Amino acid sequence: MDKSIGVIDIGSNSVHLVVGEYHNNEYFHIIDDVKVNVRLCEGLSETGCLREDRMALGEQTLMMFKNMCDTYKLDKVIAVATAAVRKAKNGQVFVDLIKKTTGIEIEIIPGETEAAMDYLGAINTIDIRDALLMDIGGGSVEFVLIRDRKMADAVSLPFGSIDLTEKFGLEDVATPGKLQKLHAFLEEAFAGVELFEKARGLPVLGVGGTIRNIGRIHRRVVDYPLEIAHNYRMCEDEVAKICHMTAKMNLEERKNLKGLSKGRTDIFVGASQAVYKVMQTIFSPELIISDAGLRDGLIFKHFGNGPEDLVHNIFDNSLVNTMLNYDVNIPHAYHVYGLSVKLFEQLKSLHGIEEDVSRMMKTSAMLHDVGIKIQYSNHHEHSFYLILNSGLEGLLQKELLMSAFIALNHRTNKKVKVEAEYMTLLREEDKRLIDKLSLFLQIAEYLDRSMDGIVKDIDCDIKDDVVEMMVLTTTHSVFADMIISECGKKFKRVLGRELTIKNKVIAAV
Amino acid sequence: MDKSIGVIDIGSNSVHLVVGEYHNNEYFHIIDDVKVNVRLCEGLSETGCLREDRMALGEQTLMMFKNMCDTYKLDKVIAVATAAVRKAKNGQVFVDLIKKTTGIEIEIIPGETEAAMDYLGAINTIDIRDALLMDIGGGSVEFVLIRDRKMADAVSLPFGSIDLTEKFGLEDVATPGKLQKLHAFLEEAFAGVELFEKARGLPVLGVGGTIRNIGRIHRRVVDYPLEIAHNYRMCEDEVAKICHMTAKMNLEERKNLKGLSKGRTDIFVGASQAVYKVMQTIFSPELIISDAGLRDGLIFKHFGNGPEDLVHNIFDNSLVNTMLNYDVNIPHAYHVYGLSVKLFEQLKSLHGIEEDVSRMMKTSAMLHDVGIKIQYSNHHEHSFYLILNSGLEGLLQKELLMSAFIALNHRTNKKVKVEAEYMTLLREEDKRLIDKLSLFLQIAEYLDRSMDGIVKDIDCDIKDDVVEMMVLTTTHSVFADMIISECGKKFKRVLGRELTIKNKVIAAV
Questions:
Q1: Helix ranges, A229-357 (H)
Q2: What are the tens digits of pLDDT across the range A290-312?
């Protein structure tokens, strides 16, 4: 199997090169991502042809990409072209030109293939079973009906953000008249999409720059504390708010709007209106944004995760990838995870946690020491940063933030302090949860402080005032006194009991 | 050569195990660091012997350390004991006991060896030529006169923080009478130290927990924005302030003092007074804190950086180590660095920077992409975090912070924004410097955006209103338009000229 890959995506608005590799044959990591706003689509609707100047910029861009691929010594390069080249009468001329001057062989993919790759990118990185995937690009829009993680149906329509902008004159102010015409057009186009009927009530799984920008603008508006595009979720009202707000702005106002990309200020209104119109049409309650799409889908397919072989467990897969990236001591991480689960189970009557905290417990336990990669001192703070910023998949963003806080607090007795900025996302009961789960992690971590897995079992006996913990070890004893002195106060505060520890050394099996 | 090492340091106050390894045979990284407050020294001054309970805790601790060393499969374990074991009549009994129960062979090292190892740890990680090194531990204090990076002289005195506390009853309130007696004792002891005469006016290079705590308390008091112990610097007045303040506190107040470790509240006053007394005695203007000491010295010696083979260039050595740790694309980093230096040189008459910014330019250029290790998206922000927190050596802390800001700003046109918290360390002119240096880095980065080193040379022609930059490339052209659109505005703002770029493609040599 090839170990490094470059994916060139020749879109209607921009041309991308993404480079990724299996590091040490172990874990996958994106090491480069270049975008050039070539706007191949520009003027296409007038003449039906790619314009000379756009093709020239495309050629220069692909020349650079070719050099980059050579420099990276990639095992495999995949180049695909979507709507602009697909629709243009001279699309093949462009493909031939690029082949001649750069050697890159571009495959013009049909809309349905584009939809299928969008689906692969999203479904392998977001833990969802049923949704309507929507990818609106510069020159087309794709829809995939996802049922039980499978692609049940797909369709591609031949208009995108640039077409809508040009057709309805939406660069600057969208007058009520223009918007009305836009809506009428969209309603007619969407009326012909049969799969919408079966998508009624599903969340929209959104792919592409327009939708990422809707999310980013919203995060700025509500002062959202995290800057993570992937798996950001907005309810229908929130999407409506952003789409209405931006439609009322003129170009200058949009240029100054925080969260909206420079290269997208003029072509944003038509496409964002289309997103909202889809949500209305299928009565969708929620927009779930995927940062992964076509390019990621091509990478997944290449490395064996095609439609019949989806990533089985997105969360575990991502966790392992992250542990390998940062050289985590995996046996220790698993052992600490196992012990913290035992504590959680055995102390259930005291902590009373009912909700599903399994992913947060696993994330924080497996990655509690990940910050050592940065520097040993203050590594719990570095673990906080790395858990939040490493693109972990399979968790909600709130779960990710809480996991980071649990890991951060696994080395302190103090009550959880949450900076004001994060409180827009966390409530008081979340803080109490962090407090409890970080206590279990802290005790588990001390039980394996010798890193050698000597604690074979624990048995907590809950009395009226005290929890008597019996610890079975092989070889040597745990530091019962140290654990009590480091965690005893927190235990008492959080669970209302004293903690005592007895150690029994048993023969190793 | 062995690739992984464990260093066990049996001190008077605490017992440490540090584990480090050469990862992929390439770069050194500390992967574990455990401390147990064994307090072997406790009661020693009364009987001249290590107490049974202290030895038992020491034995349990070393049993755990032995298991850890086995689990890590270390190539080499070094165990040394310092003052407590050295001074105790039953020191050898303890060493024999440990050998018997754990197999660990402890070497009792004399004070002069301890001083020499402190010296190796500090001199290989802090870029300084002349200083008086001082390491005050629990049971002894070492001094090394450093001249031109060499160890010119060394001495060890047989008292430390625990001795001073016990001898003068300083656990709780230090009454004026107690302090007076302490000072008289210190004056007499220091009067006999001949090398102090030759150390007149030198900075004190401080090693050990007491001195690290002086620094940490000071950072809390002045709201210092970084949490970095190593190479933190305080002038004589600042040291005086912390030492006077803590001497007036009772034990309860010291327990609540931010920055002072829990395990050190009772033994802090005597030792910190000794530090200040030394500064007074030699008329030292400054305390430079080294986070590296004995244990690091032993590691350096083991891996070939002994007194005759010091790390030649601490800064470069640390930079390379960091690049390897995060899989930086090294050819690209070097190329960008070279181009930014060329821009700096050629635009000298416009930017007018006189001070030495060479280390900041190198750090920010070599590490501008380091954040890709975390995640490609927003990698400049991750680079900021990693530059600040990776323990880079050979720079002042302020240079480190500015380097992080230069890297952070290499992807934006905007004026440098510095969060209020950092402004205690940076002034307005520093922000202007960051603005200029990040501009050069940004242009250099775009010139090698294709990652393939095609730009062989640049030639900037400074006219009245414009800077005409001629770029010589091989193979393909640079994206002149993209560079202008991304950096032109910033160029104009920072240097007061328009930027134009001409590209000449020359044959590859």
A1: 236-247, 251-255, 268-281, 294-302, 314-325, 330-346, 348-351
A2: 999 999 999 999 999 999 999 99
ipTM of the complex: 0.94
Tell me whether domains A3-109 and A112-297 share a fold: yes
The answer to whether B382 faces chain A, any CB pair under 8 Å, is yes
Q: Residue ranges of the domains in chain A?
A: 3-109, 112-297, 316-505
Chain B residues in contact with A291 by the CB 8 A cut-off are: 377
Q: What's the pLDDT tens digit per position in B23-81?
A: 888 899 999 999 998 999 888 988 999 999 999 999 999 999 999 999 999 999 999 99
CB atoms within 10 A of CB B235: 14
Would you tell me how many other CB atoms lie within 10 Å of the CB of residue A295? 23
Residue of B26, B216, B450, B454 to mutate for A, most A C-beta atoms under 10 A: B450
Partner residue facing B389 (CB), from A71, A375, A454: A375
The three-state (H, E, C) secondary structure of B444-491, written as one string: HHHHCCCCCCCEEEEEEEECCCEEEEEEEECCCCCCHHHHHHHHHHHH
Closest-CA residue to B335 (of B448, B504, B480):
B448
Residue A263: pLDDT band (50, 70, 90) is confident
Q: Are A229 and A215 in contact (CB under 8 A)?
A: yes
Task: Judge whether B378 is closer than 8 Å to chain A, CB to CB.
Answer: yes
If you compute the radius of gyration of chain B from its CA atoms, what whole number of angstroms results? Answer: 26
Right CATH for B316-505 from 3.40.630.10, 1.10.3210.10, 3.40.50.2300, 3.30.1360.30: 1.10.3210.10
Q: Does domain A112-297 have CATH number 3.30.420.150?
A: yes
pLDDT in tens, B144-156: 999 999 999 999 9
Say which DSSP state B416 is in: P
Record the tokens describing residue A140, joined without a space: 């087309």
Contacts of A417 (CB under 8 A, 6+ apart): none
Task: Return the bridge partners of A469, or none.
Answer: A460, A501
Q: What pTM does this model have?
A: 0.95
pLDDT of residue B480: 86
Bridge partners of B106, per DSSP, are: B79
pLDDT tens digit sequence for A55-108: 999 999 999 999 999 999 999 999 999 999 999 999 999 999 999 999 999 999
Q: Hey, which residues does B7 pair with through a beta bridge?
A: B18, B78
Residue A250 pLDDT? 96
| CA dihedral sign, ordered A331, A335, A336, A337 | positive
The Cα-based distances of B246 to A175, A193, A256, B215 in angstroms read 70, 76, 52, 13
Which of B29, B374, B450 is facing A68, going by the closest CB pair?
A: B450
**CATH-assigned architecture of domain B3-109:** 2-Layer Sandwich (3.30)
Interface contact flag, B60 A389, Cβ < 8 Å: no
Q: Which of A452, A478, A486 to mutate to test the interface with B (most CBs of B within 10 A)?
A: A452
Closest chain B C-alpha to A325 CA, distance in angstroms: 8
A349–B contact, CB cutoff 8 A: no
